[in-house]
Specification:
Layout: H1 3-9, H2 21-32, H3 34-48, H4 54-74, H5 85-92, H6 95-132, H7 138-154, H8 157-186, H9 198-201, H10 206-217, H11 233-263, H12 268-274, H13 279-324, H14 343-362, H15 367-400, H16 406-428, H17 430-434, H18 439-442, H19 447-465, H20 467-472
Helix pairs in contact: 2-8, 2-11, 2-13, 3-10, 3-11, 3-12, 3-13, 4-10, 4-11, 4-16, 5-6, 5-15, 6-7, 6-13, 6-14, 6-15, 6-19, 7-13, 7-14, 8-11, 8-13, 10-16, 13-14, 15-16
GO molecular function, one term: transmembrane transporter activity
Subcellular location: Cell membrane
Pfam families: AA_permease_2
Length: 488
């Protein structure tokens, strides 16, 4: 059989060769919503975490993620599947655990996406009322956003990548301008590096700041989700993984440090605690006037929209991966003949968004205090559990192959231990993430136990009754990049 013939019978996949390193980085950074993190999570870390030590904590967490990435990118040549976590765990541990991981990943990403849409709808309403004096319902902005996301997800992935690139560049450039103005204002005498000392980092509240720091960078692992659509993925995806972590880390550490300098280390905790939600916009108004505050408020909206779009692309590709492997109906694995997108999965996801957001709306619940608060933290904890499991699973995978080295065993093991500790801290201090004393909200993460049981049970049933499907779990892939082009 010629290489061309081999290609023709390979498993149908997503359209290859569409995304370069920069495209994937933009997709990942958009999911992180850097402006949302800087304006929302960082002030909370200032107020209720270790305060001045927050920039140093951000630096430590980024180093942990870099350690994780060392083993993560070494797995790329062995896994050609859009399921990322799911596929890594399935081929490293066993397929039942892989199925459970797929369920957890999908629900965690859905929680992240819907919570982001809720926050975006709230801030859209607030922005329109403050700037134009017009009162609008949050449901209107949620509906518009879901419609736009459905359109962009349905089309070719490069369209979504371009939209995300523009939105991301706008918010990052604006924040960097603000950073420069802060440094210019404080001058050399105002520079203070105590944020990076052990005493500041390990101050009371360190555990809470770790939670917020991890929430800011979780999502970089999705680089592997775009493996099939990447140009020269064996090079592109590792570069994008390291690039996303380094860019996010540099941005968070530098910008949060600038905020510390602007308020001054001595006053930081008190000022942040007084009104954490308006700390960043207050800085915008102080250095750029009223238009600076309004611009920041608008960019928060676009940042959250970009994050929701990025999460939607992640979820659609997870649906595609598990459908292609036979875990859910095959229709969800269909690829659009023109756009190369998993369009049925995108339409299904749109329906899920409508149901979840519509349920909160019909119940008369608040989009920020109820929808965003209850689901964002749950999604973050789910993804942290997957990061931890993936770290340990990589050790198992390489040990079975007899590949013992710093990159294949030590780095994943160290990352796994550190991520497990961070996950424990997240659960222990979960009320700090949600900002509520509600017993129902603060026990939502335990629903993942039911999800794991359901997924593992499904995998066990497949092993007993559907061996052909069971064998495909986590291993179905498109082989075009390892096949030489046909000659003659």
């Amino acid at each position: 059989m010629s290489h061309t013939d081999a290609r023709s019978v390979s498993t149908p996949g997503l359209m290859p060769g569409q995304l370069g390193t920069a495209d994937i980085i933009f997709m990942i950074l958009a999911c992180a919503a850097p402006l949302g993190v800087l304006g929302g999570l960082v002030p909370l870390a200032f107020a209720f975490g270790n305060g001045v030590g927050t920039p140093g904590t951000m630096l430590l967490i980024c180093l942990v993620m870099l350690i994780f990435a060392v083993g993560y990118v070494r797995m790329i040549p062995h896994v050609r599947n859009a399921g990322a976590f799911y596929a890594y765990i399935a081929i490293s541990l066993n397929k039942q655990v892989g199925v459970a991981a797929a369920y957890v990943a999908i629900i965690a990403y859905i929680c992240a996406a819907t919570s982001t849409l809720g926050a975006m709808a709230f801030f859209s309403t607030d922005f329109v009322q403050e700037v134009f004096g017009v009162v609008t319902r949050w449901e209107l902005w949620a509906a518009i956003s879901v419609g736009l996301i459905a359109f962009l997800s349905y089309r070719k992935i490069t369209m979504a990548a371009k939209v995300l690139a523009v939105l991301l560049i706008l918010e990052v450039v604006f924040i960097l301008i603000l950073d420069v103005l802060i440094l210019y204002h404080v001058g050399w005498p105002g520079l203070d590096f105590s944020s990076f000392t052990p005493a500041a980092i390990l101050a009371p509240g360190f555990g809470i700041s770790i939670i917020y720091a991890i929430n800011g960078v979780v999502g970089f692992e999705a680089t592997a989700i775009y493996r099939e659509e990447a140009k020269n993925s064996l090079v592109t995806v590792p570069r994008a993984t390291y690039g996303a972590i380094l860019i996010l880390g540099t941005f968070y550490v530098f910008s949060s440090w600038c905020l510390v300098l602007s308020v001054t280390p001595e006053k930081l905790q008190a000022v942040a605690a007084a009104d954490p939600g308006r700390l960043l916009t207050g800085m915008g108004e102080q250095y750029l006037g009223e238009w600076g505050r309004n611009a920041l408020n608008l960019l928060v909206v676009t940042s959250l929209f970009a994050a929701a779009l990025g999460f939607a692309n992640n979820i659609a590709r997870y649906f595609f991966a598990v459908a292609r492997d036979g875990l859910i109906p095959a229709v969800f694995g269909k690829v659009h003949p023109k756009h190369g997108s998993p369009y049925i999965a995108c339409l299904a996801l749109t329906s899920i968004f409508v149901v979840v957001i519509g349920s909160f709306a019909l119940a008369g619940l608040d989009p920020l205090l109820n929808l965003a608060t209850s689901l964002s933290s749950m999604g973050a904890v789910g993804l942290m559990c997957l990061l931890t499991t993936t770290s340990f699973s990589m050790c198992v995978f390489f040990a079975r192959r007899g590949e013992y080295s710093l990159a294949t065993i030590v780095a994943p093991l160290v990352a796994g231990v550190l991520l497990a500790a961070a996950t424990f801290l997240s659960l222990k201090n979960y009320s700090a993430l949600t900002g509520t004393d509600s017993v129902l909200v603060n026990n939502l993460p335990f629903l993942f136990l039911l999800v794991v049981i359901a997924g593992y049970s499904h995998g066990s049933w497949l092993k007993r009754n559907r061996q052909s499907v069971y064998q495909r779990v986590g291993s179905t892939s498109v082989e075009q990049e390892v096949l030489a082009p046909s000659v003659g």
